[in-house]
Amino acid sequence: MRRCLSLPFSLLVVLSCASPRGGQVQEASKSHGPLAQKLAPVGDFFRQAVARQKLPGALVFVERLDGSERYLETFGSMERERGRSFDEKTLIRIASMTKPITSTAVMMLVEEGKIDLDAPLGRYLPEWAHPTVLGEVSPDGSYSTRPARQPLTVRSLLTHTSGLSYRFMGPPLADIYARAGVSDGVGHTEGTLAEQSQKLAALPLLHEPGEHYTYSLSTDILGRVIEAVSGRPLDKFLEERIFEPLGMQDTFFYPPENRVDEVAVLYRLGPERTLERVPVTGRNLSDGDAVYASDVQTAGPRTYVSGGGGLLSTVSDYAIFLRMIANKGGHKDQRLLSPASVDLMTTNQIGRLRANFFDSGFGLGFAVNDDPARAKALGPVGTYFWVGIFSSRFWVDPGSKLIGICTSQFWDLDDETIDQCPAQVYQALSRQ
């Protein structure tokens, strides 16, 4: 990773590198309205990216929320070795695009009066009653700590101002987390959310809660809060309270055995800088401080449900979730959140602090662009968005009434092809 008005219509753009069901997508039968012509330059951009092996494949899906216009085009293949294409039902690793879903679940419990955004985290998870902050770190890896001056809160977890971090974020906490067996959630992970919370609570925070923005395992801890408050495992809570009501039938942490072959193939650049499949070994792979695996959802312990990065989903399912958010918490006859809660989630809540990677504001689960100078890369002011470490991205632009998702199942922490998706879309639309 480099890295309350309802919208009358929206644009959904999705890029993916896999089609588990096989067979070439029939774009003509799935496209209607003028968007296909308007976004032709976007297709050219990703067609060239695939040809240059910048990505293994791509899918572009564009839709107005009212269904009046739709565009679908695919490039490359989901599995190069077998020539398999992909479609809207491909199971893809959405990675950190899991975070807005978990954050939505938290806000549902806030609305029910079961969670107080500003209560100390220790109220819900006793192990967090006395957090500490990292002091000096010695060359031998030993370190000092001091008691935190203020408690962690659910709000600080939602805004990534908690003081937690990720291993892939590097020093000074990467080695400390590694020695304690803390997982980033995109590799094989022994144990449960409860055990991860216990491990992290015994370690120091990078900084005082609320003082800085540090992208982190905060949303995994939120997953544990959901479990503690609701009395339900996180996967069951999301299934019962979000996926089933919205009709998201293809979103889960671990697929049924008969659907393993539908999970997209993950690629990376090999030694010769050409595309290769990420090995399926049942073990974790390392890339600097990052630890990941392509078969987390299909092999290994399958006991850890990462609220920050563990879900599989499809283009169709994630589109439903985004439509719900774009419509201020409602979808068809279902209402998950009030417009007021969605507004809190999708407007900047961190003041002058800046979110890692994007130099942007951050709400409660979503990054928010509040800087006109960043409009070309992030979308106009008011656009909210996030990304996934396996090359995926979405955004919602309330002013222009647009929604976009871009994803390619590709492991390359330095590649910026997917990051260019919003700019390509806005540039294409501006030519009309």
Automatic annotation (TrEMBL):
Which PROSITE patterns does this entry report, sorted A to Z?
PROKAR_LIPOPROTEIN
Enzyme Commission number, as recorded: 3.1.1.103
Domain (Beta-lactamase-related) spans 44-409
Per the record, the domain of life is Bacteria
Picking any one GO molecular function of the record gives: hydrolase activity
What InterPro entries has UniProt attached to this entry?
Answer: Beta-lactam-related (IPR001466), Beta-lactam/transpept-like (IPR012338), Diverse_Enzym_Activities (IPR050789)
Listed A to Z, the keywords are: Hydrolase
Name any one Pfam family assigned in the record: Beta-lactamase
This protein's record includes keyword Ribonucleoprotein: no
- Recorded protein name is Serine hydrolase domain-containing protein
